[in-house]
Design brief:
The chain is mainly α. Helices cover 76% and strands 0% of the residues. The longest helix has 109 residues, at 85-193. The radius of gyration is 60 Å and the shape is flat. The chain starts with a helix and ends with a helix. Residues 21-29, 34-59, 196-201, 263-270, 481-488 and 706-718 have low confidence and may be disordered.
Length: 825
């Protein structure tokens, strides 16, 4: 039992030391205590859990006396399991020895730290006493603060009552001062009004006198009104009013002279009591004198200066217009215009803000003045850089030599927009930015429209030259001018090349100008780029429609789809009207129709595709969304126009030959025909016409097209009116078939009474078939030529049959006689 007491004492000492020096030991002790309590509450569960844990763990930490995880039960079981009772005694002796060592160390630690414990206890006692003394002093201070607060509140109440009295006395004092000043104002104002000269010092005095009157005016108006009992104030008010009329007149005269800005304002300056313009306007505002008239005078005088600046620029541009367009520097001219006009406007705006900043209606007047002034400014710019945008007569719009350089134009527009930025910031109500964008848009549209007018004018010139050349070719054919020179024989080809080259070259130049307009200052057209793209595409669509309308003038058949040109009076539109009037009197030459047909075919195959590709590359966004220029519809229109013109050419040529055939048959009395000795001249006439047609087709049309070989070209027994293609062989065969068909019908209208009449007609037909038509028959190079030759042979066979049917005695001529006659020719 004594040992147990000693063990308990050692345990308590160890716990005490662990609480001061070893946190880990304290944590282990707490864990051990908690585990012991849990074991006491449920012994059975503890035994089971301990057994399972010991069996599962079996680590050295559980039987290590120095480990935080030391387990007593495990240590005992481990000791008993490893030996007999002697081993247990040895373990007990070893643990008892270690406990003695721990106890001796604990006693040494207590002895070593005893002084610290004593000091800590003394410090805690002193701190307790000091805290009590501090609490007593804080209570005393709180009581003093409460007494001071109560005293302050009573003092504030007394001061508030006295402040009201002081304010009342101050108001009375100020009123007395105003009354005194109002009575003193009359003599001072009269002296000022009667002063004949003033210096700078007197000017300050005058300003002070008028300022004092402004302060006293309220009292004079209140006490000096008519019917007032204060006679002194009534008299003072009358005197002040009379003097102020003179003073206000002087101030207004000075302000008006300053507003107008004349040079003869020295008298007004001297009579303004030596005060500056700003002081005069300030005093007039303080006196509540209306300054609207001064504002109007100021703005009117400055408007005249701005008009003078524009007029000077107009004269300068008139001198510049006499120089070639390539030598004009549009940007420098715009810079000079802005330097004079915008510089004058900036001076006027600064002076206006300085003089009339306190006038209520001054801002509205400045905005109206800005709109009016810049209205003329923008009108002059449109007159200079977009001179033809408002013209209804587009013929006189411009010539190619007068077209402004697109890069210089956009540079000038960029200079204008940059220079207007500061003015727009100073007067945003005038919306100068929107008006500048509108002016730029009109200038760009005018430049593009003028370029298209020049393009149309060039095309009209080439078309007129082609018409003249075609008339010369037709005249030479009519006169049988076999000795025509080489230039005449190739004139149609030259005219077609010149016309197509003019179209492509002018279109390329125009597209380059459009690209320069977009790329030089892209920000200037960024807000309306899509509208610009649609406008350019619409111009090209109108150009193609107008050109096709001119090419098909006089045609009895309209193409499908028909051209729909612009209603504006453009060069091509005027040319269409003139050509229609001329064709109503004289139809165009057949050779001109052939060139027009080839031109429409060129538009269908090459030109429209080239234009559409260029527009798609230049405006990809607008092309994706559609636009005015429809490639498929335009090509279909050009193809249809080409077919219509070819058919018209074929019909005119065939009608001319048919007329000769009909006249040749109807002019002869076949009942009196003699035995034939030679071929009648009809075949020679047909040969000359076919030679002319062949020559015209050879200049303009291709030889022919190789058939696809799929049997798509059907053979028709009566092939006189089959469709015509844009090739030499197709046109020649179409004319020959129509001529032979006309011959057949004319023969069917005649009666050959004798065998000589029949033999003469048969001889003419044989000569026509073997000697004339054989020269112009297709060579068979192309697959379609086989069908064309077969169709012509069928028509010739039909012609021979018609001659036999219309003969009363169809006795044929001896073949040897016919051969000899033909050999003589």
């Amino acid at each position: 039992r004594a040992e147990m007491r000693e063990d308990a004492r050692a345990s308590r000492v160890a716990s005490l030391l662990s609480s001061y020096y070893d946190e880990d030991a304290r944590t282990a002790r707490d864990a051990t205590s908690a585990r012991d309590e849990s074991t006491t509450r449920d012994g059975t569960h503890r035994a089971t859990t301990t057994t399972t844990t010991t069996t599962g763990r079996a680590t050295r930490a559980s039987v290590d006396l120095d480990s935080p995880d030391f387990d007593v039960d495990a240590y005992v079981r481990e000791t008993l399991a490893n030996g007999d009772g002697g081993g247990a005694r040895d373990a007990y002796a070893r643990v008892s020895a270690e406990l003695g060592v721990v106890e001796s160390r604990a006693q040494m630690l207590v002895y070593d730290n005893y002084g610290k414990f004593i000091q800590a206890a003394s410090a805690a006692s002193a701190l307790r006493e000091a805290s009590a003394a501090m609490r007593t002093r804080c209570d005393a201070l709180r009581e003093s603060a409460l007494r001071a607060k109560a005293l302050s509140e009573r003092t504030q109440e007394r001061l508030s009552a006295r402040r009201e009295v002081v304010e009342q006395l101050r108001g009375v004092r100020g009123l007395i001062g105003k009354l005194s000043a109002s009575l003193r104002s009359a003599p001072a104002l009269e002296a000022l009004a009667n002063a004949s000269a003033a210096t700078a010092t007197e000017g300050e005095d005058a300003r002070t006198t008028i300022a004092e009157y402004v302060e006293a005016k309220e009292v004079l108006d209140a006490l000096g009104a008519e019917g007032s009992d204060a006679i002194a104030f009534v008299r003072a008010k009358k005197r002040c009013d009379a003097a102020m009329e003179k003073i206000v007149a002087v101030l207004k005269a000075r302000a008006r002279a300053s507003a107008i800005g004349g040079d003869e304002d020295d008298g007004a300056s001297k009579s303004a009591f030596g005060m500056s313009d700003e002081v005069c306007l300030e005093l007039l505002s303080a006196l509540k004198v209306s300054q609207d008239e001064l504002v109007d005078d100021f703005l009117m005088s400055r408007k005249k200066k701005l008009d003078d600046a524009i007029e000077a620029s107009r004269k300068s541009f008139a001198e510049l217009a006499s120089t070639p367009v390539s030598e004009r520097n549009l940007k420098d001219f715009m810079s000079a215009l802005n330097q004079s006009f915008l510089g004058e406007f900036s001076n006027a705006s600064e002076a206006f803000e300085k003089l009339f900043s306190n006038v209520n209606s001054a801002r509205n007047a400045l905005v109206k003045f800005t709109k009016d002034a810049f209205g003329e400014y923008f009108a002059f710019i449109r007159e200079t850089y977009a001179p033809h945008v408002d013209k209804t007569d587009m013929i006189a719009a411009s010539s190619s030599a007068d077209l402004l350089n697109p890069k210089q134009l956009m540079c000038a527009m960029g200079t204008m927009a940059a220079d207007l930025a500061s003015v727009h910031r100073s007067v945003p109500e005038a919306a100068l930015g929107d008006r500048a964008v509108e002016t730029i848009e009109r200038a760009v549209r005018s430049r593009v429209g003028a370029a298209f007018m020049c393009l149309e004018r060039d095309l009209v010139r080439e078309l007129d030259a082609t018409y003249v050349a075609a008339k010369a070719v037709s005249a030479a054919a009519a006169n049988r001018a076999s000795g025509a020179d080489a230039a005449t024989s190739k004139s149609l080809l030259h005219r077609f090349i010149a016309l197509s080259d003019t179209l492509l070259t002018s279109v390329q130049t125009l597209l380059s100008d459009v690209e320069s307009l977009m790329d030089e200052r892209p920000i200037l057209i960024s807000s309306w780029r899509e509208e610009f793209a649609y406008a350019v595409r619409g111009h090209f669509a109108s150009l193609i429609h107008a050109l096709v309308s001119r090419l098909i003038v006089g045609s009895p058949i309209a193409p499908n789809p028909a051209p729909n040109p612009t209603p504006l009076r453009t060069p091509l539109a005027v040319a269409v009207d003139e050509a229609r009037e001329s064709s109503s009197k004289t139809p165009p030459p057949p050779s001109f129709l052939l060139v027009c047909a080839r031109m429409c075919a060129f538009l269908h195959t090459s030109a429209t595709k080239h234009i559409a590709d260029a527009l798609t590359k230049m405006f990809p966004a607008s092309s994706a969304m559609g636009g005015s220029f429809s490639l498929d519809e335009t090509r279909a229109m050009c193809e249809s126009a080409s077919h219509v013109l070819l058919m018209w050419y074929v019909e005119q040529s065939a009608q001319r030959i048919s007329f000769m055939i009909r006249k040749s048959l109807t002019a002869v009395d076949w009942s009196k025909a003699r035995e034939p000795r030679e071929v009648r001249p009809l075949a020679d006439y047909i040969a000359d016409d076919l030679a002319t047609i062949e020559n015209e087709c050879a200049q303009v049309l291709d030889v022919g097209e190789i058939d696809s070989g799929d049997g798509s070209t059907p053979f028709v027994a009566d092939g006189a009116f089959t469709p015509v293609r844009s090739t030499q062989s197709s046109v020649m065969c179409a004319v020959i078939k129509r001529a032979v068909k006309s011959y057949v019908e004319c023969v069917r209208c005649q009666t050959f009474h004798t065998k000589f009449a029949f033999q003469q007609v048969s001889l003419d037909v044989r000569y026509l078939a073997e000697r004339v038509l054989f020269r112009f028959m297709p060579s068979g190079q192309f697959e379609s030529d086989v069908y064309e030759r077969r169709a012509i042979e069928i028509l010739l066979k039909e012609l021979r049959s018609a001659c036999e049917l219309r003969a009363c005695d169809p006795t044929p001529m001896d073949k040897a006689v016919g051969d000899r006659i033909l050999e003589k020719i």
